[in-house]
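Milestone M4 deliverable, item 7.
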Amino acid sequence: MNETTRDEPTRDWQSDLLVAIAALLTFARGVPRALMTSWDDQRFLVEFEPVQSISVDHLVALWSEPHFEAYHPLHLMSYWLDVPWVGPNGPVIHGVSLALFVGALLLVRRVFLAWGLGRVGALLATLAYGLHPVQVEAVTWATGRKEIVALLLASACILLHERSRLADKGPWERDAWLSRAAYVGAALAKTTVLPLPLVLIARDVLLGEKPLRTSIVRQVPAFLLGLGLGVAVVQIWHDNEMIRAAPEGLGPIALVSSTVTHHLGTALIPLWTSPVYPIHRVMADFAWWDALGPLALALAVWRGNAPVRFAAIGFLVLLAPVSNIWPLYFEVQDRYLCLPLLPLAFLFGALADAVQGSGKSALTVVVAAFAAISVIYQGVWSSDLSLWKHAAQTHPESFYAWMKVGELERNEGDFGAALQAYDRAIENEPLLRLGHAARFQTFALLDEERHSLSPSRAVEFSQRYVQVADDSEGLRTVAGDMVVAGYRDAALIPLGRAMELTPMSPERIERAALSQLRHGNEWLVRFYVERMSRPPFDPALRRFIPAENE
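Output delivered:
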């Protein structure tokens, strides 16, 4: 055994230690955080009984049907590592997730070695992948554990495939079947793993110089398994209204192109990471630069060498399930990048192996920059409100970011801040009733606080308001019931909407104002008079004319 061979186990151990320390230092800031109850942690970990304790009944419940608009039983089972023992404890759950993530990164480094990278290239590729800011969502968000479990099993699938390929005993030997089993397990943790067999084929052909036909035959069982799971996934998405309509005309093509460009841009320059982003609803929402991502990847496949082509194809393949071929409810998410980032990180490592001296130093600086951005971004995850304010400030056109800010401010009793947030949400999406309903509910809660109304009927009236939003008579009925119940500012919202739908003559408005004056509702009199196109004839109403109209 020569000196180099004897040094390999030591170098391997040192590389693993470096990866583990770097990941722990980068993500440790997120471990003490509480759960993000406004973003799935509440329903997954606090309210969902099957993860609360270990039993046969709960095992059957996890595996027998979809939960949370998906079929991810292995993801949900992963919480049996901590929740049954300590409850929905944020720091413990985050600590377990980080430990699992470190273990996954150790496998990822071995994947890069198996794909042909040198020791330094594999190390830098693993660090670039593991410390990338998009991983903050996977590691720091308790519900993001699905990404980590999927990464663990997908890495095991790749490594078992590599061992089977090197043994060259055909597609039916033990390691080949173990690889397929790991693939199914990964898909049962996160369905975006489904195209992984195509990545294995691309690796065999482009990096391993295996015949295409031989590689396809080896993956036929995985294709059949993945096809069955894929059909089930699309059906679950349809059943739970997770698929929305694409913009008309060239909208479907523009949407896929924009999605690819967004995720490729985030992978290369992760400066604007966020839990949610604006959604394209019409063709006018797209821009010419939305085509740059597909064009860049097409150029890479056409003109690139084998590693470049593999990285481009692998990225596109792993992004395919969330590329909006079926338009998703949230069209882009940072966590969608967790697996597609893998082949891009491989290319980063190949570049590290190809350059010398200052080139390697420059790539090390990039890794350090990723880590620094991740540490900073984790500060945003310190609380629900901090997270959504960051989303709204980073992407002010995001309807859902402002909706979440409004919801949290409203729940904290800051109705003024909540109304400002809902106004921004409505400004972004004026046709979505959700924003109008939330704003209406906030006004109702404000009325209840000001006028000591009890019990609260804000939710009830909000639901009724949405149901009759285009029916002027129904709106007047809601407004009348609210006035009787003691609401004021909130009651004016359905009343004003009714008058927009069915305009009233000045004479009719004046009669309504006089009727309310007789009942002593001067606040409602003022509302009517302000909407008259002429001054009221009745002297009793003159004092309610706004000063600027006198």
